[in-house]
Amino acid sequence: MSIKKPSRRSFLKTSATGAAAVAATGSISALRAASPVHQGGGKLKIGIVGVGGRGSGAAIQAIMADKENILYAAGDAFADRMEGGLNGVLASATEAGREKQFQVPPERRFVGIDALDEVLATGIDVVLLATPPGFRPMQIERSVEKGVHVFAEKPVAVDAPGIRRVEAACKLAKAKGLSVVSGLCYRYHDGRRAVVQKLQDGAIGEILTIQGNYMTGELWFRQVQPQWNDLQKQVRNWLYYTYLSGDHIAEQHIHTLDMMAWIKGDVYPSAVVSMGGRQKRTDAKYGNVYDHFVNNYEWEDGTRGISQCRQQNNTARSVNEFVFGTEGKANIFRHQLTGKNEWRYADKSRNMYQAEHDEMFRALRAGKPINNGEYMCNSTLMAIMGRMSAYTGKRVTWKQAHESTEELMPNLLTWQDKAPKSEISIPGVTKFS
Known about the structure:
Layout: H1 16-25, H2 28-34, E1 44-49, H3 53-65, E2 69-76, H4 79-95, E3 109-111, H5 115-120, E4 126-129, H6 136-145, E5 149-152, H7 160-176, E6 180-182, H8 190-200, E7 207-216, H9 230-236, H10 242-245, H11 248-251, H12 254-263, E8 271-277, E9 292-298, E10 304-311, E11 318-325, E12 328-331, E13 336-339, E14 343-344, H13 352-365, H14 373-392, E15 396-397, H15 398-403
Parallel strand pairs: 1-2, 1-4, 2-3, 4-5, 5-6, 7-10
Antiparallel strand pairs: 7-11, 8-9, 8-15, 9-10, 11-12, 12-13, 13-14
């Protein structure tokens, strides 16, 4: 199947909404108020929801993107996580001489699963979403409905119903002229952009195989405290519960899979056969996720994508993509081609995390919103279909994955809600739905 990369389109200054506002008031300021695009100068109020390591990093990068960006409101499920993260953001902003851009007083700090609604109610222009991925579909929907620009960390869902919700929200964002920028940061890396362009231009001939690895060590675990109930235990350690993280094939390996699809011109695989399991992280504290996956993705043109991911300590590490074509091969992380057309990217690349925010806010002020919705949804589904295949032991097609009715993420509203069961999938036993 062919799914093309979305383009950046200009928001029309003379939109129907804006024209109506001017006609009613005769005021240019009314036009700016009616439009979600913020052309020229002026302060932009930013809210953040999920102030952990990645979230606090996104907050300082948003501050650094423009001197008129103001961090205005924050929310997190847990007070200690929010306060610790905000202290780190303020320290970084102060070190950079940007402390005046940190304007998050106690009355604009909100704690709870529903913190997003309170952050949106403060009148922010842009929201940074860095909570556990299971919450992402609901949060993107509500932000777009509120008319707020979105930066969404990856992945954007943990199941197919969530993907379909985000797809609809991103279409609505386009209609409203809102930016939706993805945390799939490889796409904002200058060296990777250059080598992908070479590959798409045919520098190594026809692409036959892409090998992608994300083999690394184990991640953090937060020791359970006696005052936490079952749901709090899971959300505190969200990495280890598929309904919250999507498993590490979606939460981490998605970078590799997105890279593979990008190399193919955003044409996504038609099917996958995967395997995986729990070899080392077998303790009950690790919830129901696997610690390794191996995936064989199939494209309709015959290209094969072989990907591996692993989170195990004291094992060989490899994070890279290698592309093999009829006239050469590519080492993506080295930004290098060998074969008929030898080449290597020689320029210095920007920090890709900072580049995401630089480009997002520059586009907002230019009146040209960015919408990464199509590829961020499709790359998330590519990861989910690999997990589906590994969990069930079955070959899974793109159509089956997209139409799946399996809904992992419950509608969590309070800490009194019941925590889902964390059953471990068994290939050949677990059923596809």
